[in-house]
Amino acid sequence: xxxxxxxxxxxxxxxWPGHPLSHAxxxxxxxxxxxxxxxxxxxxxxxxxxxxxxxxxxxxKFATLPQMQGRGFGRRMLDHLLxxxxxxxxxxLWCDARVSAxxxxxxxxxxxxxxxxxxxxxxxxxxxxxxDRP
Length: 134
Description:
By secondary structure, the protein is of the alpha+beta class. Helix content is 24%, strand content 38%. The protein has three helices and six strands. It has helices at 4-15, 73-87, 102-106; strands spanning 33-39, 42-51, 56-64, 92-98, 111-119, 122-130. Strands 1-2-3-4-6-5 form a six-stranded mixed β-sheet, sandwiched between helices. A hairpin with a 2-residue loop joins strand 5 (111-119) and strand 6 (122-130). The longest helix has 15 residues, at 73-87.
């Protein structure tokens, strides 16, 4: 795990380039669980987990450096986040995924929920992974 101060610069540079660092902050960041993946001592991927009120965990602000995308770092991070959510007793992990990333999530067992929606000039779809329970 990392802290929010470590996560913010990468989060902002990938998700909201050209915007101030504050643009990448969200309510609840101070209480969320933040994760980072390092390669050769460089932080290459970050993501944050926010428990919801329905026994689930929301994945937010998942970002991997553009030059490191397509090399398996995001997949390794997502696998780790799925394990973290399951180990914490969540019934599901969900996110508002950018439409351009829907296939990435689908390959890990996420399913689309609802319709595409717009926020801050981006198109999103809710993606959810449900955990099987004995």
